[in-house]
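Title: Prediction job returns without error message
Component: structure pipeline
Severity: low
Priority: P3
Assignee: unassigned

Description:
Job completed but the reporter wants confirmation the result is attached to the right record. Sequence as submitted:
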Amino acid sequence: MPQILERKFSKEKTQKSFAAVSKFYDFWAKVTESKAIDIALENIGPIVNGKILDIGVGTGDMFYKIIPFNKDGFNVGLDISPQMLLKAREKMKSYKNFKTNFILGNTFRLPFEDNCFDYIFSSYVFDLFPENEFINVTKEVNRVLKKNGKVIIITMSFGNRWYNNFWFLLAKYFPGILTNCRPVDLKPYFYNTFKDVKVVTISQNTFPSEILTAVK
């Protein structure tokens, strides 16, 4: 297993970091993260009256693409940053007829009942957490997901190419530039809790991402 850089999590520091990048985060996402999001959604068909949760909804880039799959259902976006949620709400103005809700909260204790979501999505959120919290957050995801529900997690990865190492070094020596994100490997944690775990690793403009899908 590759070396996962140590991180400490601070709610206040994380909110401050994402408030600082909220104005230009969409541009960053377009050049580094959009490919991974598109691949993650390739195998999603229409969802009938489903209930979807996007953990770390951010400015709503992934959420905006998910909603059309669940036109008659209920779609929830959760984020720790008020500024990012504000951006997400602005994007949803063109989706007035869809049922959406945005909640300020964190992943360590999801503010939802057990077994309530058909799909759970998350993009570039686990990258922020201390490794010793991976198993607890994975259990929370499992708790609120319905039986046979599907989870799709996108993270910054170590990559398969030599040039992907640039991002590891950047995360190691200049973590603030990446809002404290770094490459992680979630496979061992999901193998122990979920079934049908599948992983795809991709690169967009040298930035490496991993798309993990699994079923409860």
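Comment from assignee: result matches the submitted record. The mean pLDDT is 93.
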